[in-house]
Amino acid sequence: MANIRQLDKRRKSVRNIRKITRTMELIATARFKKAMDRAAAATDYTKRITQIVQDLGKSGTDVSHPLLEAHETVKAVDMLVLTANRGLCGGYNGSVVRAATQRRQEIREQADAGQTLASGKRGISALRFAGIPLEKTYTEFEDQPSFDAVAKIADELITRYITGQVDRVDVAYTRFVSSSRQIAVVETLLPFAGIEVPAKDASKDAASGAGSKVEGSSIRDDYEFLPSAGAILEEVVPASFRARLFKCFLDAAVSEQIARMVAMKSATENAGDLIKSLSRTFNRARQSKITQEIMEIIGGVEALG
């Protein structure tokens, strides 16, 4: 029969673990709500400014922007991998790292890998363990990433693309679809040639009096540029890229908190089941010991009689 003292000690340890996992679940839930509010607030802005860039690129004007033009040959590809600084979030970090390493292998078969940048201590450790060299690492991003910090990374990537040091920029992160669905993806942010934006509602445009031509998609062709189309593109296109990259960081933050919330909830439930099992074993062992002691007392009394 198992030792009663060891069973009681193990049961107390599991109870302490359950308190920790329950607390972490509550913290992740609170952080998830805040992160989701930020991501939801940025979604509409990101979609709208991306739609404007797409419309301007197809408006028939003679001006263009380097970020809208795809390079003739893809010789170097930069990749930014977004993971978490901490673990205990299920397969969140592992799925992103797997997607990034798979895309990196595909890139190496066609072009140079370029620079690999990683955000999050877990991703940094995993990529280094896999033998992937990292040019830059970032560990300052938590559940509330700063737009200014993300904008600095975006400006560096923009400079590398415009100067021809890199021909494409990919970002590996976990896309937030809903509270029950998050997908690890590798998305191409530069060039903007691959932008996919949901078509605007033509009925809303008609109701607002906006003139538009619909040929497969709602693309406005009545833009008036003040002071000039080139000046507007010079500001709007980089701003759109910064917004899209910031949205990737926000999605990653929301998905991380959801993954941790689910993992800690599962751990709490498993700890509860283990406590019940240990309690049953403990009670049986204690009852067996009590029965044995009673039998010894009865045997001693009979021997004395």
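Next protein, fold it too.
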Amino acid sequence: MGIAGIFSAIVGFLALLLGARYLSLADNARFSLFWSVMFLAFGIVSGLAVETTRSTTAANSSKQSTSQKSSVSVLIIMVCSVGSVLVVLGGTLPAWHLAIPAFSDRDGWLVCLAIVIGAVGYAGQSVLVGALSGREAWSVYAAITFTEASVRMALLILAAVFGGGVIEFAFATVFAEYAWIVFLVLSPTVRASLKQRTDVPAEKFARRVGGAILGLGASSILLVGFPWLIGLTTPEVIVLGAAPLMLAISLTRAPLMVPISALYNVAVSYFTKRQQGMLHMLRFVLLALLIAGVLGGALAWAIGPWLLSLVRPDYELPGMTLAGLMLGAACIAMVTITGIICQSNAKYAHYLIGWLVAVAVAVGLLTTPFGLTTRTILALIVGPLCGMSVHLFFLLRQQTLTR
């Protein structure tokens, strides 16, 4: 499971490297914006996976059987989720078009269409992998993850080889989100997972999904949507020259966020079943991430500029900038971990508030009059630290109240 998740994340970064290698500086900046908005949409939709994981895990672990009348099957959740995402995103397509800067009118509409197509497919996959997580069918989950990433990589290579531009790269990216349908047709384990039921009635499940979606939407703004924030708060002429910075943000996050992203649903499932000792483990994990950020920052300062030049000789950033981005990646990783603990306790309001604070502080810092690099580093460090502090406040208060 971990290997498949890491492979998927590596494919994501290879996709960005392909864009840097085969697209012009301006077009690669546009592709980074598309990638950011697409995964922001995926991050919002992934609230379905988190709550499906938590609910089916709790139902399967409970000694008391869940009432068949009050609970809801995963199959019904999947059908409703795919339909809802199609209606909501399709109906708000003009808003998405306005929210994506730096594209021409025609290309902007095509990019938005690609995002809708991808998000609908990802909605079905999210419910499915959530059900597989609740059933602890990790091998099938891993196979779906591996296949999705492989299809994406193959399509992107074809787009690059045949001289495709931003639009071709965009559609090559999103069509991979339908690879899970093959498993639905061929795998008895996948079909059996759809027969599972939730641990709560449909109405309560829907409310919790709403909380998870809001929380993950807020977190995704910083986790994957940061280049989009840069596009919204920076003049277009500067954005189109910021491809090296956008790529560096993704590359410096890889060492910490790839393992966390790969094991996200696994962690939610694990902590849902093991509530004791979470805060003790949390202290250890946060300290380890801080140390990794400092050491990684020193390494990025020393050899980061050279590594970035290997991607493309005209991609130049100073070591100090890369060190700051690495420290920001550690801060993002820390608030992600505290958020996972909140989610495993079904405290989606606490999760949401923490991430909203992080986003608000980051956006505020991005609108300051400093240069783009300074604004970016400050936003990536201070915003997540503020959000993490909010999560820790709620977690410590909960522990005090339960004593």
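About the second fold: The chain has a mean pLDDT of 87.
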